[in-house]
Amino acid sequence: MLRKMRRRITIRIDMTPMVDVIILLLIFFFMTSTFREAEAIDVQLPHAYAGVRIPKTGVYHILISEDGKIYADNEPMQSREEFIQAIVSSRATNPNLIFDVKADQDVEYGVMLTVMEDLRRAGIVRFNLSIFKEAGAW
Amino acid sequence: MAGANVGGGEGRSRTGRRRISIHIDMTPMVDVIILLLIFFFMTSQFKEPHGIEITLPKTDVPVKIPESNTVTLRVDENNEVYFNEEPVEEISKIREYLIARQTENPNLVTILDVHPSAKYKTMVDVLDEFKIAADETGVTKFSLAMKREETAPEGGGG
């Protein structure tokens, strides 16, 4: 008796508002996101409070791994001469290039010294040391 | 379609037709959109890259600085920090020392003497302290001692 009385109820959840929100989120991500660039190695940047923004384009990245290997523009460098050569030639093609040294926080400072010396030998006196910006005021 | 009226009286076709509710199944679309959302969520980078600006002097010529205008921040191979050869227990204390000294003497040059075997992290920590102090006092000159053998300091400023 009861069985017959009851009609099969199809439950329909209106997904439209959810879809609206999801599409808005999608548009938001689409507009605001900048893609993480593929990098040759994963570098653990040192943390610091002070720091200025680095533009996203026109930057030449110099990666220094934990064990002191140097990658210029994602290319592993075999020698200091090759490194200097790479910098000089890239500077020649784009004089406005910004040089950014992304060094692992555990690398020995001696490696940084040679890199800075090489940069100066290549004629680069202004460069950035990439850091992971610590949030909050000091 | 206008052709629906063909073959019948006006009123009949109206009443004879049932209102058809068109239902488009949105589920596949939603699936795709959620996948896209996840993709953007995972690949996008919100944190903008930041860096500490370093400007090296153009020439090799060492700049002579009177002893009284310098403070030395030394980092040894065990990552211990010394402020004018006095051990610093906490790196975050350096800013106070520096601010005090820099307000005393606006021509102060801070020498960062970091041992090549010290960790880069320590050097950045110390440099960060210097930058914080520099923001406070406006004294932005520092020197990176490049080599222990050469006493000529490398100037830098940001």
UniProtKB/TrEMBL annotation, chain A:
It comes from the Bacteria. The keyword Zinc does not apply. GO terms for biological process: protein transport. The keyword Transport applies. Keywords: Cell membrane, Membrane, Protein transport, Transmembrane, Transmembrane helix, Transport. It is a single-pass membrane protein; Single-pass type II membrane protein. One of its GO terms (molecular function) is transmembrane transporter activity. Signal peptide: none annotated. Pfam families: ExbD (PF02472). It is found in: Cell membrane. Its main location: membrane. GO terms for cellular component: plasma membrane. Belongs to the ExbD/TolR family. This is Biopolymer transporter ExbD. It comes from Candidatus Coatesbacteria bacterium 4484_99.
TrEMBL record, chain B:
Keywords: Cell membrane, Membrane, Protein transport, Transmembrane, Transmembrane helix, Transport. The chain crosses the membrane at residues 22-42. It comes from Candidatus Coatesbacteria bacterium 4484_99. It is found in: Cell membrane. This is Biopolymer transporter ExbD. PANTHER family: BIOPOLYMER TRANSPORT PROTEIN EXBD-RELATED (PTHR30558:SF3), EXBD MEMBRANE COMPONENT OF PMF-DRIVEN MACROMOLECULE IMPORT SYSTEM (PTHR30558). It is a single-pass membrane protein; Single-pass type II membrane protein. Its main location: membrane. The keyword NADP does not apply. InterPro entries: ExbD. It comes from the Bacteria. The keyword Methyltransferase does not apply. GO terms for biological process: protein transport. One of its GO terms (molecular function) is transmembrane transporter activity. Belongs to the ExbD/TolR family.
